[in-house]
């Protein structure tokens, strides 16, 4: 009888531990950065640091010859992945992997908190923002470019955005501040969809 009671007690303790770890699991993030861009390594490294500052744990990265399949695997994750940064080439409503294969709004699913697609024209329309379900909520947002962006200007923006301003103000204000650090008029057409007051902090 005592053994049975001890066994039941141990089982309860184990179940409570599992439930506790599940409840307290942190939101995670992933960074993808294509080596088709000369600035890929720096931008990816800045993003990992910034997302970690926002409390995403773990924040992992894939930098180099990123593939569409690897990005879609993350996009379709059913775990605690709620944030994503991608530095690559693309256009309105889509972004590419290293090999030029595209991901468009019809291939995206899930409910995301913070997504930043760092490719030209990624925010020229609401297609990607809506696909990631980052619009219409108080604690979600999508960041991208409303026009063309050079790799040099993207790198400069990301340096200040991720390493100086993120975590100290809303994502919108951090982006506006970082954009002023890029010299020239209209050289950093950053655009945000979703909450303008959201800090990007992990849930």
Molecular structure report:
Helix 2 packs parallel to helix 5 and helix 5 packs across helix 6 (171-179). The protein has helices at residues 2-23, 40-53, 68-75, 127-131, 151-165, 171-179; strands at residues 28-34, 59-64, 81-87, 90-91, 94-96, 102-104, 114-118, 141-145, 190-194. Helices cover 36% and strands 21% of the residues. By secondary structure, it is α/β, with parallel strands linked by helices. The protein contains six helices and nine strands, in the order H-E-H-E-H-E-E-E-E-E-H-E-H-H-E. The radius of gyration is 19 Å and the shape is globular.
Order of helices and strands: HEHEHEEEEEHEHHE
Low-confidence stretches: 13-24
Q: Taking Cα atoms only, what radius of gyration do you get, to the nearest Å?
A: 19 Å
Class derived from helix and strand content: alpha/beta
Specify the biggest β-sheet: 6 strands, mixed
- Please identify the top-level CATH class: Alpha Beta
Q: Report the count of strand segments.
A: 9
Distance between the terminal alpha carbons, to the nearest Å?
44 Å
Categorize the overall geometry: globular
Mean pLDDT: 91
Given the structure, what is the number of helices?
6
- Which CATH-level-2 architecture? 3-Layer(aba) Sandwich
Query: Considering DSSP H and I runs of 4 or more, what fraction of the residues is helical?
Result: 25-40%
């Amino acid at each position: 009888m005592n053994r049975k009671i001890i066994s039941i007690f141990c089982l309860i303790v184990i179940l409570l531990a599992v439930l506790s770890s599940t409840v307290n699991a942190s939101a995670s993030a992933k960074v993808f950065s294509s080596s088709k861009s000369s600035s890929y390594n720096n931008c990816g490294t800045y993003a990992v640091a910034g997302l970690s500052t926002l409390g995403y744990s773990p924040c992992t990265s894939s930098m180099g010859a990123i593939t569409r399949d690897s990005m879609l695997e993350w996009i379709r994750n059913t775990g605690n992945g709620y944030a994503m940064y991608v530095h690559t080439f693309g256009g309105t409503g889509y972004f590419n992997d290293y090999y030029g294969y595209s991901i468009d709004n019809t291939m995206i699913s899930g409910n995301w908190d913070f997504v930043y697609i760092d490719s030209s024209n990624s925010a020229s329309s609401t297609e990607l923002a809506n696909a990631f379900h980052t619009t219409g909520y108080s604690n979600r947002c999508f960041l991208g470019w409303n026009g063309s962006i050079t790799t040099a200007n993207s790198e400069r923006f990301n340096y200040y955005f991720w390493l100086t301003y993120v975590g100290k103000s809303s994502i919108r204000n951090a982006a506006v501040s970082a954009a002023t650090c890029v010299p020239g008029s209209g050289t950093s057409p950053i655009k945000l969809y979703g909450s303008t007051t959201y800090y990007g902090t992990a849930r």
